[in-house]
Write a structure and sequence with these properties.
The complex is a heterodimer of chains A (191) and B (224). With 191 residues, chain A is of the alpha/beta class. Chain A folds into two domains: 119 residues, 3-Layer(aba) Sandwich (Rossmann fold); 61 residues, Arc Repressor Mutant, subunit A, CATH 1.10.10. Chain A is 48% helix and 14% strand. Chain A contains nine helices and five strands. In chain A, helix 6 packs across helix 9 and helix 7 crosses helix 8. Chain A starts with a strand and ends in a 6-residue tail after the last helix. In chain A, 23% of the residues are buried. Chain B has 224 residues and is mainly α. Chain B has two domains: 55 residues, no CATH class; 147 residues. Chain B is built from nine helices and no strands. In chain B, helix 6 runs antiparallel to helix 7, helix 7 runs antiparallel to helix 8 and helix 8 packs antiparallel against helix 9. Classes of the chains: A alpha/beta (191), B mainly alpha (224). Chains A and B meet through helix 9 of A and helix 7 and helix 8 of B.
Chain lengths: 191, 224
């Protein structure tokens, strides 16, 4: 199994020492770097998981955190390390939250299984489907496979899959029959 | 975390959903001021399993340890799961269907498609539960040579994800995408039903995947 690299941002040595001990007992996880404060410049990190205490950041810096870190790798998982009171609105921005009182198996489970939420770069774009996404959706609703859609629209299968991912993240509808109803309601296809 | 000497009525104040535990364990209302251990004892329900499920239902981060899982009464867990299936198939889904039917009738051409979608979902849920009850549960209660395999567990997770996705699609369509003027009050009403069902089914899936499967696979010496 591929090792997943973890970057920690936490001012407390007591906490990072503890976390490191827990993480390093798991072969597939590795602490790669520890920051004591929020770094001004973010270079290429190669990180797969970022564990950050939100209290290291001012609220207006949070947006920047997600932009900076997900730019390089939009699958990057960002977890909040929740030690002091932090508002639920802030915690909701993170992919998951490690609580101070979590036991070892809960912490490891959160590190292992959390997936990145739909990335921030989507939120800067419109939530409306693009013209190309609508083309793909029409054909999905007609029941075509990815290969058939790629041939029909002269796209690579990879591009079709990307469009489909974007359609699902924008509409929040996953099943083909659900997407078909969405397409009908938006007059993309006739019944 | 709930403990055995708490009053069940206090537990319900924390999580009203737990009222569903009673019929699933064959327990009755009218428990007055009794503590959890008292109602369990008088109905001959194993208190540790009852508490474990109440805690799983209420605290998202709670998961019993392997030792606790191995110590439960497996037949009671299967009985609980079957009663839950019955509630979904024979009570909850028909109830929600009535709401969706009213919305569909007001939705013009799209109504028939919406009903098809709901029908498909209902059928998938029913088939999945029936399959568990006819193929998985009997093998489990037979013991040794009929242990749970990793294929069972993968298949189960796949179906749970699929069922969850469809329910979320249905909710999104009804709340976000149907034209505003179609039955707003009915839609707001069904939203609560759908949200409750979704939460209930998520916990049901966790109980099957994280408690039932580990309990029986280790019990029978099967490998996961």
């Amino acid at each position: 199994m591929k090792t997943r690299n973890i970057v920690l941002m936490e001012s407390s040595v007591i906490i990072t020492e503890g976390l490191q001990k827990i993480i390093n007992e798991t072969p597939e996880l590795k602490v790669q770097k520890i920051y004591r404060s929020y770094p001004q410049v973010v270079g290429r990190s190669g990180a797969d998981i970022l564990v950050v205490n939100p209290k290291l950041l001012r609220e207006e810096e949070l947006d920047k955190l997600f932009q900076d870190w997900k730019r390089e790798n939009d699958e990057l998982v960002i977890l909040a390390l929740h030690t002091d009171y932090t508002s639920a609105v802030v915690l909701k921005m993170f992919d998951n939250v490690i609580e101070r009182d979590d036991n070892v198996s809960v912490i490891l489970n959160k590190l292992r299984t959390t997936r990145s939420k739909s990335t921030d770069k989507d939120s800067s774009q419109s939530c409306e489907l693009s013209a190309r996404e609508k083309d793909v959706l029409r054909l999905v609703a007609k029941g075509l496979t990815n290969k058939e859609i790629a041939d029909e629209l002269n796209l690579s299968i990879h591009t079709v899959i990307t469009h489909r991912k974007n359609i699902t993240s924008k509409t929040n509808i996953k099943s083909i029959s659900g997407l078909t109803i969405y397409a009908m309601l938006n007059k993309l296809i006739q019944q | 975390m709930f403990i055995a000497r708490q009053k069940f009525s206090d537990v319900l104040d924390v999580n009203p959903q737990l009222i569903l535990m009673l019929p699933r364990f064959g327990m009755k209302l009218g428990f007055g001021e009794k503590r959890i251990e008292e109602i369990c004892r008088s109905e001959e329900v194993p208190v540790s399993l009852f508490l474990m499920l109440c805690n799983v239902y209420t605290f998202d981060d709670y998961m019993p340890s392997d030792e606790e899982i191995q110590a439960i009464e497996g037949e009671w867990l299967v009985r609980y799961l079957k009663a839950s299936h019955d509630y979904y198939i024979n009570h909850r889904l028909p109830h929600i269907r009535k709401h969706v039917e009213r919305i569909a009738q007001a939705a013009g051409d799209i109504g028939a498609v919406l009903m098809d979608f709901f029908g498909e979902y209902q059928k998938e849920v029913t088939n999945h539960f029936e399959k568990e009850e006819t193929t998985l549960f009997p093998r489990i209660s037979k013991g040794k040579d009929h242990s749970v395999t990793s294929k069972d567990s993968h298949e189960m997770t796949y179906m749970h994800d699929n069922i969850g996705d469809k329910l979320s699609d249905l909710t999104n369509i009804i709340i976000k995408y149907l034209p505003a003027e179609i039955m707003p009050n009915e839609r707001i009403g069904v939203w609560f039903d759908l949200a409750q069902l979704s939460k209930d089914l998520d916990k049901h899936a966790i109980i099957e995947e994280k408690i039932l499967i580990p309990y029986f696979s280790r019990k029978e010496g099967g490998e996961l």
